[in-house]
């Protein structure tokens, strides 16, 4: 295989096997030369891209930003037999497991035009622009009514809520005034909230509760002290009665009074009640009384009775203080609740005003967006018409190229069908439409197949004559199986033979391969048109590659 005058040998496994490789600047005879440097198949494919795809005046398809590649082009040059030449843009059948990149019909016709030089960069650019304009128009047509409906719904709602407000305004102006009004309300409420401080009533209620709780703590403290005193007297009584030893009494005192250093009792009372913390201490007027005087059970009982009376009195005084505390708590809660409600009311006013500002602003914005989309539709329609007109002018400028291609197609058709039939190439929208005409347009399944064959051969011949970018390689797989008339099938071989003879003995600059079960014309039943030796499945030596696989 020669690519840009560089010979390549391409070795690929028929089934699962070794990795493919290529030899650059080598011939088939050197395939098994171990000294020849092997390269990756990707290098050969890149050479094909450079030689066959890069010369095209357009680099990507019009319907999508997908680069045109050799994998797209080879689909046209070697159509699937499973498609049975049923349509001009039918390259690959889904049952063939081809793994080729998908191509829409629009892409196939774009590829035809690119290869036959019926499109240029200006038209490609305009096609891209037109595609973008169509997308913008569809976007505007979809969103304009949505924004209009949303805006009108908001306007109706605000008119019902403020029927007498600014009746001189309509639409966006009215909604903007509503938004401004609620923004001012929000700012005013926020300013009032910033100045909001606790009232004197709340401060007084909090102070009164603190004072009552302090009084209650004092009463509870004295009750606790009195209870401890009663307990100590009981311990002394138990000692006096012989129920507890002096050591147990000392242990109790150490456990319950070791951290006590000061109390609210007078020193005389502590000595009188024989408090262990006052042991050994004397009043200034005392001179003879001993600290360790004998405990008198009768005296202890009198002391206990006296302390119980004091305890009962203190407990009686606790009830009104507790009631006073409950009342102070209730007053503070009521005062705090009233204050919190006022703050919450202002906060709610701020949140509501902000929400209404946003809602009215959004409705006004919807009006503006709807108007903008409607206005853009007129501008887009104008730009789309201008783009389509420009595309038409560009295609008209390519009239000479189209006429040239159509003339080649007409010559191929006359060679196949005779001088009574006229073949033409026309544009049908953005698609190429090859036709056979004999007073009326000729159509049938067999003629459709022939039309496709003539179109492919015409593209090849156009390139042979120095126009277009066709690689001058063509493979038609089983065209006879598409119910083509045998006489027309024979003419196809003679047409290609005549094209080869036009090179006057020089090496033809094209390659045309037909796979068929129908014998070719008698002139072609000889080398170099047939494989020599003839392949046969009778024995291994006559099979492809001369071996059983």
What does this structure look like?
The protein contains twelve helices and eight strands. The chain is mainly alpha-helical. The strands form three sheets. It has a three-stranded antiparallel β-sheet with strand order 1-2-3. It has a three-stranded antiparallel β-sheet with strand order 4-5-6. Helix content is 57%, strand content 7%.
What key attributes describe this structure?
8 strands, three-stranded antiparallel sheet
Please outline the helices and strands.
Blueprint (H helix, E strand, L loop, with lengths): L1 E2 L2 E6 L9 E4 L16 H13 L16 H8 L27 H11 L5 H41 L9 H25 L4 H41 L5 H12 L9 H6 L24 H101 L1 H19 L4 E7 L2 E8 L1 E2 L3 H20 L8 E5 L8 H16 L9 E5 L34
Parallel strand pairs: 7-8
Antiparallel strand pairs: 1-2, 2-3, 4-5, 5-6
Q: Outline of this structure?
A:
By secondary structure, this protein is mainly alpha-helical. It has helices at residues 41-53, 70-77, 105-115, 121-161, 171-195, 200-240, 246-257, 267-272, 297-397, 399-417, 445-464, 486-501; strands at residues 2-3, 6-11, 21-24, 422-428, 431-438, 440-441, 473-477, 511-515.
């Amino acid at each position: 295989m020669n690519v840009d005058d560089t010979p390549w040998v391409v070795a690929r496994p028929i089934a699962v096997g070794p990795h493919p490789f290529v030899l650059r600047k080598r011939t088939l005879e050197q395939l098994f030369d171990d000294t020849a440097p092997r390269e990756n198949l990707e290098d050969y494919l890149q050479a094909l891209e450079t030689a066959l795809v890069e010369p095209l005046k357009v680099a990507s398809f019009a319907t999508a930003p997908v680069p045109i590649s050799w994998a797209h082009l080879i689909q046209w040059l070697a159509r699937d037999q499973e498609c049975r030449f049923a349509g001009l843009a039918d390259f690959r059948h889904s049952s063939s497991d081809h793994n080729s990149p998908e191509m829409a019909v629009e892409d196939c016709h774009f590829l035809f035009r690119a290869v036959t030089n019926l499109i240029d960069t200006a038209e490609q650019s305009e096609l891209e622009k037109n595609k973008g304009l169509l997308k913008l128009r569809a976007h505007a047509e979809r969103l304009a009514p949505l924004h209009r409906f949303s805006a009108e719904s908001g306007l109706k709602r605000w008119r019902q809520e403020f029927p007498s407000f600014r009746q001189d305004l309509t639409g966006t102006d009215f909604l903007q005034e509503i938004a401004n009004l609620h923004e001012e309300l929000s700012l005013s409420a926020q300013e009032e909230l910033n100045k909001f401080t606790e009232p004197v009533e709340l401060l007084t209620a909090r102070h009164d509760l603190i004072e009552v709780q302090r009084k209650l703590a004092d009463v509870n403290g004295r009750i606790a002290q009195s209870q401890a005193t009663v307990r100590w007297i009981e311990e002394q009584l138990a000692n006096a009665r012989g129920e507890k030893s002096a050591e147990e009494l000392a242990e109790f005192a150490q456990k319950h009074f070791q951290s006590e250093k000061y109390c609210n009792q007078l020193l005389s009372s502590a000595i009188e009640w024989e408090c262990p913390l006052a042991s050994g201490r004397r009043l200034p007027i005392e001179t003879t009384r001993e600290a360790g005087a004998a405990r008198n059970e009768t005296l202890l009982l009198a002391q206990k009775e006296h302390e119980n009376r004091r305890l009962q009195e203190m407990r009686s005084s606790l009830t009104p203080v507790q009631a006073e505390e409950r009342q102070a708590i209730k007053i503070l809660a009521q005062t705090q609740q009233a204050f919190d409600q006022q703050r919450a009311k202002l906060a709610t006013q701020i949140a509501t005003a902000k929400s209404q500002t946003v809602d009215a602003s959004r409705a006004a914005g919807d009006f503006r967006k709807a108007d903008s989309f409607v206005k853009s539709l007129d501008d887009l329609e104008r730009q789309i018409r201008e783009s389509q007109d420009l595309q038409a002018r560009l295609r008209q400028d390519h009239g000479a190229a189209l006429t040239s291609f159509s003339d080649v197609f007409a010559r191929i058709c006359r060679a196949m069908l005779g001088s009574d039939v006229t073949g033409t190439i026309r544009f049908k929208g953005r698609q190429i439409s090859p036709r056979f005409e004999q007073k009326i347009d000729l159509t049938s399944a067999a003629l459709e197949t022939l039309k496709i064959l003539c179109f492919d051969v015409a593209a090849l011949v156009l390139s042979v004559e120095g126009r277009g970018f066709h690689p001058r390689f063509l493979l038609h797989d089983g065209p006879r199986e598409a119910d083509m008339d045998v006489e027309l099938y024979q003419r196809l071989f003679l047409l290609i033979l005549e094209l080869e003879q036009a090179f006057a003995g020089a090496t033809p600059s094209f390659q045309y391969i037909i796979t068929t079960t129908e014998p070719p014309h008698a002139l072609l039943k000889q080398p170099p048109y047939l494989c020599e030796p003839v392949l046969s499945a009778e024995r291994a030596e006559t099979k492809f590659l001369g071996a059983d696989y």
